[in-house]
């Protein structure tokens, strides 16, 4: 499939009406790295660090993490890599961690909540990232931030770790960006100050959608019940885009929907300009974006809303059929 899109691989993801998008790839295992030059990705918009922890049967040592993250940065050849700190907890249980018996693991003690309550592992991970960067730019993102205070605390931990590493004689990263995932609806309504303080935000659409509709993403009975192109969800996403626009906050979208061409087109239409997806999706998404006029897509969305439709999907699909 990658070959089918080879002719546009080095072309920009630019729509007919001149909107230019940045398309990045999601990764997490070393096996993903060869895709970086082949897919046409501008960088790694989401590196899920927990995958490395999940595939092993004991806790990796810090030195192993340093080597691993350095290899990721080497493979990226100067392109930006967004390292997401561990998103583990009772929904992603490490084989060597005592499982917590939680009735609602997706809503439980996971991700940044574990990282802040038991900072040992997160500190080790941050040290490994700083050492792996070894003077190169470093981008870190905290998962599952639900309120401003959690971001502040995590950021403080990063700053303390940096200072300690510097005292130990390690080279500081050339630049540091510290962002957060927006994957709980609460964060969309955080104070303006949060949007001003965070270096960037990335919408984790998989989690954000499950919490928005209160529909478990793992539950086959409900997970397909609510469409990403549901007008309520699109309005919600639009509100996030507007808040980021007003505060000048860099925003991207890294959930699975970013890699679905029709969804990606609608995300672009409501103002997103940075999408991160599995590498094989970059070609198909870019192809549709390059053939589309976002002003027309916005008109289709507005008309569907005006008619009171539940999802804009049928209208978009009809419009797409008329295009060909
Ligand atoms: C998400 O929630 O959309 C996301 C990108 O993170 P994960 O799928 O790893 O939870
Ligand atoms: Mg998530």
From TrEMBL:
It is found in: Cytoplasm. Signal peptide: none annotated. This is phosphoenolpyruvate--protein phosphotransferase. It comes from Roseobacter insulae. The gene is ptsP. The chain holds residues 424 to 747 of 747 of the full protein.
């Amino acid at each position: 499939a990658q070959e089918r899109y080879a002719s546009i691989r080095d072309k920009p993801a630019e729509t007919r009406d001149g909107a230019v998008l940045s398309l990045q790839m999601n990764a997490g295992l070393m096996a993903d790295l060869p895709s970086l030059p082949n897919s046409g990705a501008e960088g790694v918009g989401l590196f899920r660090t927990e995958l490395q922890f999940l595939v092993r049967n004991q806790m990796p040592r810090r030195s192993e993490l340093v080597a691993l993250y350095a290899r990721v940065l080497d493979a990226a050849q100067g392109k930006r890599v967004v390292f997401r700190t561990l998103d583990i907890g009772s929904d992603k249980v490490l084989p060597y961690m005592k499982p917590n018996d939680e009735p609602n693991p997706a809503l439980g003690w996971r991700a940044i909540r574990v990282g802040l309550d038991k900072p040992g592992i997160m500190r080790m991970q941050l040290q490994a990232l700083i050492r792996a960067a070894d003077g190169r730019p470093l981008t870190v993102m905290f998962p599952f931030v639900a309120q401003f205070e959690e971001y502040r605390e995590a950021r403080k931990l990063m700053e303390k770790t940096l200072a300690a590493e510097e005292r130990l004689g390690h080279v500081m990263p050339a630049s540091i960006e510290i962002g957060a995932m927006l994957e709980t609806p609460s964060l969309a309504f955080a104070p303006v100050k949060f949007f001003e303080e965070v270096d960037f935000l990335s919408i984790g659409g998989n989690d954000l959608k499950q919490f928005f509709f209160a529909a478990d993403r793992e539950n086959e009975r409900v997970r397909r019940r609510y469409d990403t192109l549901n007008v309520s969800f699109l309005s919600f996403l639009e509100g996030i885009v507007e808040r980021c626009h007003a505060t000048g906050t860099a925003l991207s979208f890294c959930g699975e929907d970013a890699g679905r061409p029709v969804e990606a087109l609608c995300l672009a239409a409501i103002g997103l300009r940075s999408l991160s997806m599995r590498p094989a999706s970059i070609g198909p998404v870019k192809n549709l974006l390059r053939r589309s006029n976002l002003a027309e897509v916005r008109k289709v969305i507005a008309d569907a809303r005006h008619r009171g439709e539940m999802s804009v999907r049928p209208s978009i699909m009809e419009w797409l059929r008329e295009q060909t």
